[in-house]
Design goal:
103 residues; alpha+beta
Length: 103
């Protein structure tokens, strides 16, 4: 390995308690001029309540890089495994059992 490559190498540690990950089937995104906030949630069918399992906060620049790398990885996945079906018609309940708004 060249010394320049070694200098640019990043050693990333994955703690054991994080290694199994967190399942999410819903992501709520909020943003301000300085940050994007991603709340990863697991919604269970038939339950009126859900909790945020993980929150990730990114700068706008990093959020855009995430969009790009996610798109590249989806493209690679689909080239190997076929198109991912989009569930456009599937509706996610957004009230989570709370009070319903009235007009």
């Amino acid at each position: 390995m060249k010394s320049k490559e070694k200098k640019n190498q990043l050693n990333i540690e994955l703690k054991e308690e994080m290694s199994s990950g967190v399942y999410s089937n819903l992501v709520v995104v909020n943003y301000s001029p300085s940050e994007f906030v991603f709340d990863f949630i697991s919604v269970m069918p038939g339950l009126p309540k859900a909790k945020v399992n993980s929150r990730v906060i990114l700068s706008p620049q990093h959020a855009k890089r995430l969009l790009r790398v996610l798109g590249e990885n989806i493209q690679t996945f689909e080239s190997k495994n076929g198109n991912i079906k989009d569930l456009e018609g599937a509706k996610v309940p957004m009230n989570f059992g709370g009070p319903k708004g009235q007009a």
